[in-house]
Known about the structure:
The protein is an all-alpha fold. It has helices at 12-21, 29-41, 45-59. Helix 2 runs antiparallel to helix 3 (45-59).
Amino acid sequence: MKKKWPIPRPTEHAALRACDRSPRRLPPVPALFAALVDAVDRSDREGMCLAAHRVVRAAAPEVGA
């Protein structure tokens, strides 16, 4: 068996182009707000940050573009 070195891997640029071809759908804003409230209740700082950013991205799609 022949080994290739280094193993060919996609570049970051190719990975970003692949992401652009398939748009990701965001959950509805009420579900994201529920996740945000749940994170606040649990004092989950990372969860609060993630949920808040997703709420903004879902409410204003041009922010993530």
